[in-house]
Amino acid sequence: MLVSLLAAVVITRKISPKWYQDIEKYPRDTFVSLSALFRANKEVVEAVRETVVRQLVADKLINQRELSEKESLQLHLYNQVAYDYKKYREIRKVIEGVPGVQHGESNWVVDAVGDSGLAYGVGQFHEKTFYGFAKEAGVEGEWHNPYDQLTLMAWAWDNGKQNAWTVYRYLKTKGEM
Q1: DSSP string across the chain
Q2: 29, 41, 91, 98: which is deepest, by most CB within 10 A?
Q3: Summary mean pLDDT of the chain
Q4: CA 77 → CA 15, 30, 144, 157, 173, distances in Å?
């Protein structure tokens, strides 16, 4: 229901990022089509995007459907960044890339291989970098485990180590970060 409501109507005036929790408080005339919103209010667009992760959880609980591997990884990442949507969005851009600007590290392919066989997984870690970050973070993890890679990516963002990813550096120079 939330997804269909978001697809149909969105509030265009300046509101809190948690507007979807109080949607019934707003008069019907404050709503417009989603396409108009994309042209008018970036803050609300980000709030709409944020609800997607919450919807994944709701779908699983309400419909008892299993999350896909990609959805499960995205939800894990969102939990690892402590629900900081800005950080979540940046890491997703590194993984997925930005259409027309730069390809991503792995596009959520858990066994992706890059850098002539040196980089592996969803986070495209080199083995040495993965275990170096894990030691520095004080966590145990397995280089081939996508959840461990996402956990260390979140840690890297918390500790200013985003420049370890070529895609991050490139997107930053293009103003995408």
Answers
A1: -HHHHHHH-EE-SS--TTGGGGGGGS-GGGEE-HHHHHHH-HHHHHHHHHHHHHHHHHHHHHH-PPPPHHHHHHHHHHHHTTT-HHHHHHHHHHHHEETTTEE-S-TT-TT-EEGGGTEETTTTEEHHHHHHHHHHHT----TT-HHHHHHHHHHHHHTT-GGGSHHHHHHHHTT--
A2: 91
A3: 74
A4: 26, 34, 16, 12, 24
What sign has the CA pseudo-torsion 74, 80, 81, 82? positive
> What gap in Å lies between CA 62 and CA 49, rounded to an integer?
20
User: Structure pTM?
Assistant: 0.63
